[in-house]
Design a protein that fits this description.
By secondary structure, this protein is mainly α. It has nine helices and two strands; from the N terminus they run H-H-H-H-H-H-H-H-E-E-H. A hairpin with a 5-residue loop joins strand 1 and strand 2. Helix 4 runs antiparallel to helix 5 and helix 6 runs antiparallel to helix 7. The chain is globular, with a radius of gyration of 21 Å.
């Protein structure tokens, strides 16, 4: 039996308020944990960022597939990729991509961002041939959904840094991506140096 004023009754009362007033604690906890994880990631405190992202993932994972799940999976994968933990990052990116495509279709900003991140994951591993399809698709989505003056600069940077592997194994600029980059360079208000 719970006695008013004791620790367990306070915890239960707060849980009740979360469920009734806020529609569930998962969302509130997710927001807090995700923000703290992102803040720790930006400061370079990766162990704290990982703990917070995992807590956010746990809070939201069983509420169904929505953009919070995709965002958390993508951010956790980005953290792992930053730490060169590629084997852990790849399945998270794939799952985030599946969630984005399920909730909003294949042509949305979240899909393009995750595709770009997957391409960069492969590029960082020097798997240029595997990276190119992801970067191409990301670029195609962004060109379709965003007007020229709002295109995301991370894709421009991806294009400028991207290489494919030739038969002799030497990296050479991709003709497809180089042509796209030249067209982006000519957009009004853009000054990009290579």
């Amino acid at each position: 039996m719970l006695v008013p004023g004791t620790r367990p009754s306070v915890i239960l009362w707060r849980a009740f308020l979360c469920i009734v007033a806020l529609g569930g604690c998962g969302t509130v906890f997710w927001e807090t944990a995700h923000k703290e994880g992102f803040s720790a990631y930006q400061r370079g405190v990766f162990s704290t960022a990982e703990k917070q992202y995992l807590a956010a993932l746990k809070a939201i994972e069983f509420e169904g597939e929505d953009q919070r799940l995709a965002i958390t999976l993508n951010d956790l994968a980005l953290l792992y990729a930053t730490q060169r933990r590629f084997a852990e990052a790849e399945p998270l990116y794939r799952r985030a991509l599946a969630v984005w495509e399920k909730i909003g279709g294949p042509e949305r900003q979240g899909v393009a961002t995750t595709l770009n991140n997957m391409g960069m994951l492969y590029r960082d591993q020097r798997k240029y041939v595997e990276a190119e399809p992801f970067l191409r698709r990301s670029l195609a989505i962004r060109e379709k959904i965003l007007p020229p003056h709002h295109r995301n600069s991370e894709t421009v940077l991806t294009i400028s840094q991207f290489s494919t592997t030739t038969r002799d194994g030497l990296p050479t600029p991709s003709r497809f991506l180089s042509a796209r980059f030249r067209s982006w360079k000519r957009l009004p208000g853009r000054s990009i140096r290579m």
